[in-house]
Amino acid sequence: MLTAEQVIAAHKANIETLFGLTNKAFEGVEKLVELNLQVAKTALSEAADTTTAALSVKDAQELLSLQAALLQPTAEKAASYSRHVYDIASSTGAEVAKVAEGQFADAQKKFSTLVDTAAKNAPAGTENAVALVKSAVAAANNAFESVQKATKQAVEVAEANFQAATTQAVKATQTAARSAPKRAA
């Protein structure tokens, strides 16, 4: 049986975990806000520079050159922004997952202890039922570990695909930017 002190300690630990996760979530949101403010400031400054440059253009050839020169950095900045957002989201998610894994491991340990205690105190003749419960707990733990491994592999594959897609997009933009002035000439 659980004592009142154990229940209070468990509730206290759960509340501390909740506040810890809330702080991690706010840190992630804060990083996103900082990134977006930085992007907005930079975009405003670049818009002013681009407008000034566009207003000083003397002919269509110069306008096409200006347009081509702006194409590549914009795509690279978009890719960089996406990478930053992804990094913030994945690091925040990883921290939350780490806490969740720790909580689950702790819960597994406590439940195993509870099952072992119940097995020791079980009446004679219930050995088969106790073995069945232990087997079910072991199967559930194995299933959770398998899901956890599959999830980690899926995240790694998704991250590799994201990086490859970003690299390809930047390369395609660079190629298009290099060929744009040639077409204008």
From TrEMBL:
Tell me the InterPro entries matching this sequence: Phasin, Phasin_subfam-1
> Phasin domain location, by residue?
5-104
Record-given protein name: Phasin family protein
- What is the source species? Pelomonas parva
